[in-house]
Amino acid sequence: MRHLDKTKNLGHKWKINELQQCGCPMKTRDERLQELEEIVAHQAADIESLSQTVNEQWQQIDGLTKAFMRFRDRLTEVEDSGTGPHENTKPPHY
Description:
The chain is mainly α. Helix content is about 65%, strand content about 0%.
């Protein structure tokens, strides 16, 4: 246990000595920080893109909802006025 007590915990199951023994190259703190900054920058760009897509889709949904409401209102007008075709009326081509 004394061997593990002398190793620095990296925040996960790997210890520095274990990484050095496997031949894995050690990254400096600056390299790790740079890598994390790049990941965050890409994630921020992805979030912005997704946000823009959601906004565009909501605009389309709003437009379609308004068009549907106009169509429904117009259909109700036609049905209430009695000028539209009745259910039992055959189309003119029969």
